[in-house]
Specification:
It contains 11 helices and 10 strands. The protein is of the alpha+beta class. It folds into 3 domains: 88 residues, Acyl-CoA dehydrogenase/oxidase, N-terminal domain (Butyryl-Coa Dehydrogenase, subunit A, domain 1, Orthogonal Bundle), CATH 1.10.540.10; 108 residues, Beta Barrel (Butyryl-CoA Dehydrogenase, subunit A, domain 2), CATH 2.40.110.10; 158 residues, Butyryl-CoA Dehydrogenase, subunit A, domain 3, CATH 1.20.140. The structure holds flavin-adenine dinucleotide.
């Protein structure tokens, strides 16, 4: 396995602090020592590692202070900048089977949590004691979340939630669900996020389909029938759901870009290592341009995608216009998710028959990277957002 153990950054991204490089080095060692060695076992076991291994991953992550990266130290997180966080996400992207999901963390909407919500859910999540899940998508509301039908009717005791949520990642292991539902007031729907304890009566998993990747958590369909929550179980205020959702998308899309760059890094390392050692027809296969040129194209994609990703992160850290950051995060997600999957496909080809084996890193990435072109907004939706940005913010602001 061509994994570089030494922490070495020959030409760091301009402006990276000593602190950022130290965090990156710590995450890199964790990925090399704790995550990558467990990938094949996770794949063989359908994504589910034994409990003691999961406990070990959590323990090592907390010992290396890699839990809750963007969350504040006051809540048990690390208080990283967006750039520091993206450097760590890039490292997570170098590993397969989403074993990094065991690193204790929580969704960014918890930044808007009340002290009581933080105490009950956020702090335990960052210690690895509970998991959360985020439920927006419905049968008839995917790319267009304004079509959601879930409702939260006001009652004397708070709200009564009804609806059906699809693709709830980690809905099988989460003990708290962040649920988007419309509060109907004055005849107009107010999209609102609710903190819903999964143990409440009226919550039922009605489907649990298999998906392409072999990951630790599932993506069930969850039905909410007359689920009663209190008046304080709103997060971000009644009607604040769309704004929080936009923040979530910007962060998750940048995370997908950072992880995709990391995936290409690992894919190219492993594949160049293989192709320079493998001989067929009297030559190293790397000496056939049919093998090496596609890898060269992916190297150019990886380097360009990395610069774009870290430009967006730096812009957010500098307090740049969040709307512009939203467009640019879409551009990074689109470019990297499309090029990372193409890279995995090229690497499978370079490995030949071995590239079709589940024990091969390129085979796993080929399956795993496909969903990055779909979730957190499909590639087509990213193009819509970028096109709108060209018109509303101007070409120069989108490009530079
Ligand atoms: C594994 C997995 C995990 C997920 N996890 C979560 C989760 O945790 N929480 C959650 O809320 N959701 C989750 N999702 C849902 C995900 O965000 C949606 O699948 C995604 O937004 C696309 O919605 P859809 O599947 O309904 O497709 P649709 O919206 O029906 O789109 C189908 C096709 O039509 C295209 N299309 C749609 N509208 C347009 C348009 N205006 N212009 C051009 N083309 C268009 C799309 O690009 C796509 O190619 C997950 C999905 C998957 C697969």
């Amino acid at each position: 396995m061509a994994v570089t153990a030494e922490v070495e950054l020959l030409y760091p991204i301009p402006g990276l602090s000593e602190r950022a490089l130290e965090i990156q080095g710590r995450a890199r060692r964790f990925v090399d020592d704790v995550l990558i060695p467990r990938e094949e076992e996770a794949e063989r076991r359908g994504g589910i590692l034994p409990d003691e291994e999961i406990a070990e991953v959590k323990h090592e992550a907390i010992a290396a202070s890699l839990n809750g990266g963007l969350h504040s130290p006051q809540h048990g997180g690390q208080g990283w900048t967006r750039t520091e966080w993206a450097l760590v996400e890039e490292q997570w992207g170098r590993s397969t089977n989403a074993i990094s999901w065991h690193v204790p963390n929580a969704y960014n909407v918890w930044d808007h949590a009340s002290e009581a919500q933080a105490e009950r859910y956020l702090r335990p999540a960052l210690k690895g004691e509970l998991r959360d899940a985020y439920a927006v998508t419905e049968r008839d509301a995917g790319s267009d979340p304004s079509r959601i039908k879930a409702t939260a009717e006001r009652t004397d005791a708070g709200f009564r939630i009804n609806g059906e949520k699809w693709f709830v990642t980690s809905g099988d292991v989460a003990s708290v669900l962040i649920v988007m539902a419309n509060v109907i007031e004055g005849g107009s729907p107010l999209p609102t996020l609710f903190v819903v304890d999964k143990g409440l009566p009226g919550i039922e998993t009605i489907d649990d389909p298999d998906f392409t990747h072999t990951y630790p958590d599932r993506h069930p369909t969850i039905l909410f029938s007359d689920v009663e929550v209190g008046p304080d179980d709103v997060i971000g205020g009644v009607g604040g759901g769309d704004d929080l959702q936009r923040d979530w998308f910007s962060e998750e899309r940048l995370g997908i870009a950072a992880r995709g760059v990391g995936s290409m890094w690992r894919l190219l390392e492993e594949t160049v290592d293989w192709a320079t050692g493998r001989e067929q027809g009297g030559s190293r296969i790397f000496d056939y341009q049919g093998v090496s040129f596609p890898l060269a194209d992916s190297a150019a994609d990886a380097a360009a995608g990395r610069l774009l990703t870290f430009q967006v992160a730096a812009m957010i850290d500098a307090g740049g216009d969040p709307k512009l950051a939203h467009h640019k995060a879409s551009m990074a997600k689109l470019f990297v998710s499309e090029s990372a999957w193409r890279c995995a496909d090229r690497c499978v080809q370079a490995f030949g028959g071995r590239g079709y084996m589940r024990s091969n890193v390129a085979e796993r990435f080929l399956r795993e990277l496909r969903v990055d072109r779909i979730w957190e907004g499909t590639s087509e939706i990213q193009r819509l957002i970028i096109a709108r940005g060209l018109e509303r913010r101007g070409v120069e602001r989108i490009l530079h």
